[in-house]
């Protein structure tokens, strides 16, 4: 699915990594580590894949080491997002720095470099947890179905966790949303287990496996039932506009939504759709947007105009916007739409002791769906008041997903020089990052705050003065 887009994204990421990585990477990485024990957990419970690698690493070199490498294929790299690495036994250690090293475009294997906060001495061990997401991970199998048929997806991966180092002991667990898993690759077992994987309800377990060399892979494929929509947002443009004079923060989100499930074999039939209207089918009928308490004035439009199939519930405990697409979304269908709302600035904005301002808003909100939502490209634009300066930001979104950030000028109504805007572009995010913070600090001088009323007053006076001058002009011809 979306092969050309994935290939273009891969090339883009390779270029970005090459431009930002401080050193190049040798192939393969030096064998200075050994994976003493590794547990690879793959979650296919939502319409994206989340992988967790919990590994006990051991320094087998003669010098202290602080760089650990994790391999990915070029195709995986284009769909990789949300990388976070932590110490499994020390929560206070914080996330480690993880970045793509300078890559060789001619090779299919690229590497993620993980920087340990403290070098490990020879013979020392440390347990680290690596988590990341893979978007556009499934293929519908069969690719087309009838409206009343269940939907099955397939996922291909390696029963051995890909590693740049020798692994002494490992196993791979795969979790699904439904227990109906009709097809999966079988491997010879070991010990008391005659065959891998071992199936327990909605989980498959490959392993444990004995020692495997660096780079060892065992391709397997799993076909499983996924009777839910496959929600893919190709583009999300999110605007956050701050108004000091109005005491308001306005939000607007523009979506390019694609249903990535199995396509319909035949043309859409309204009769069949009404007849087989079941809550668990793979058709997207509605979305639920939990907003901050106190949100107001929501709107919901598409390229045609206002859409009336929405409901907004707001009270002291919640603010929930429920919307229905203009038409039900089947596999392969696309739906661009826009939502927006307002909120009191006091919920997000505060003034510092030094006279500056700090804005704290969610980097990503979006709908909360049981089946999950993946975002390929995200642009967040924070539009600050005219004259704002010294703009800085921090975010709890993984740095590996941030593509660029810059401050630009955005011109709109009644502006003289334009509003200062922070534009952040990210890629390959999922709804697990809903409500991660985006904190923006800036200065707003008194002269800047007075600019707009002065401009409005001066413009009004100039307008009326012009009218008065025109009224006093004598246009008669003299005798």
Note down, in words, how this protein is organized.
It is found in: Endoplasmic reticulum membrane. Belongs to the OST1 family. It holds the Pfam family Ribophorin_I. Component of the oligosaccharyltransferase (OST) complex. Its main location: endoplasmic reticulum. The protein is mainly beta and 479 residues long. The chain folds into two domains: 3-225, tricorn interacting facor f3 domain (Immunoglobulin-like, Sandwich); 231-454, tricorn interacting facor f3 domain (Immunoglobulin-like). Helix content is 11%, strand content 47%. It is built from four helices and 33 strands. It has helices at residues 3-20, 74-78, 270-275, 446-471, and strands spanning 33-44, 49-59, 65-73, 80-87, 97-100, 109-120, 125-134, 139-140, 144-145, 152-158, 166-167, 170-176, 183-184, 187-188, 195-196, 198-200, 203-209, 219-225, 231-243, 248-259, 263-264, 287-291, 296-302, 310-314, 319-323, 334-344, 349-351, 357-362, 374-386, 389-395, 402-410, 419-430, 437-443. Strands 1, 2, 4, 7, 11, 12, 16 and 17 form an eight-stranded mixed sheet that branches. A seven-stranded mixed sheet has the order 23-26-20-19-29-32-31. It has a four-stranded antiparallel sheet with strand order 8-10-18-13, with no helix packed on it. Strand 1 and strand 2 form a beta hairpin. The N and C termini lie far apart (84 Å).
């Amino acid at each position: 699915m979306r092969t050309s887009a994935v290939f273009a994204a891969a090339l883009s990421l390779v270029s970005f990594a090459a431009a930002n990585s401080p050193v190049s990477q040798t192939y393969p990485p030096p064998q200075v580590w050994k994976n003493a024990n590794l547990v690879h957990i793959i979650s296919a419970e939502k319409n994206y894949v989340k992988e967790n690698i919990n590994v006990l690493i051991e320094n087998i070199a003669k010098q202290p080491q602080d760089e650990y490498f994790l391999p990915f294929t070029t195709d995986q790299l284009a769909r990789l997002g949300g990388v976070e690495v932590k110490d499994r036994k020390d929560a206070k250690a914080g996330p480690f720095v993880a970045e793509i090293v300078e890559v060789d475009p001619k090779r299919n294997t690229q590497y993620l470099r993980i920087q340990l906060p403290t070098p490990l001495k020879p013979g020392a061990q440390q347990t680290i947890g690596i988590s990341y997401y893979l978007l556009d991970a499934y293929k519908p199998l069969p690719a087309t179905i009838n409206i009343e048929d269940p939907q099955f997806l397939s996922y291909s991966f390696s029963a051995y966790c890909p590693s740049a180092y020798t692994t002494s002991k490992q196993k791979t667990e795969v979790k699904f949303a439904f227990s109906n898993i009709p097809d999966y690759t079988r491997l010879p077992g070991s010990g008391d287990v005659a065959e891998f994987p071992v199936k327990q309800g909605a989980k498959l377990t490959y392993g444990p496996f004995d020692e495997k060399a660096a780079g060892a892979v065992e391709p397997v494929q799993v076909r499983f039932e996924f009777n839910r929509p496959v929600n893919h947002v190709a583009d999300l443009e999110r605007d956050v506009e701050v108004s000091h004079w109005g005491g308001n923060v306005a939000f607007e989100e523009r979506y390019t939504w694609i249903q990535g499930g199995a396509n319909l074999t035949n043309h859409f039939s309204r009769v069949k759709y009404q007849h087989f209207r079941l809550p668990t089918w793979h058709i997207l009928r509605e979305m639920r947007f939990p907003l901050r308490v106190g949100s107001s004035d929501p709107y919901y439009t598409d390229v045609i105009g206002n859409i009336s199939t929405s409901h907004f519930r707001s009270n002291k405990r919640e603010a929930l916007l429920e919307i229905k697409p203009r038409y039900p979304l089947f596999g392969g269908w696309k739906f661009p739409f826009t939502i927006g709302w307002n909120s009191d600035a006091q919920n997000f904005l505060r003034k510092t002791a030094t006279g500056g301002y700090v804005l704290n808003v969610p980097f990503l909100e979006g709908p909360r769906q049981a089946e999950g939502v993946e975002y390929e490209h995200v642009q967040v634009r924070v539009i600050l008041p005219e004259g704002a300066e010294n703009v800085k930001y921090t975010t709890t979104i993984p740095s590996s997903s941030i593509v660029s950030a810059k401050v630009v000028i955005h011109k709109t109504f009644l502006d003289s020089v334009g509003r200062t805007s922070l534009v952040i572009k990210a890629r390959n995010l999922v709804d697990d990052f809903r409500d991660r913070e985006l904190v923006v600090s800036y200065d707003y001088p008194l002269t800047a705050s007075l600019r707009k009323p002065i401009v409005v007053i001066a413009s009004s006076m100039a307008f009326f003065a012009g009218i008065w001058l025109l009224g006093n002009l004598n246009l008669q011809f003299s005798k």
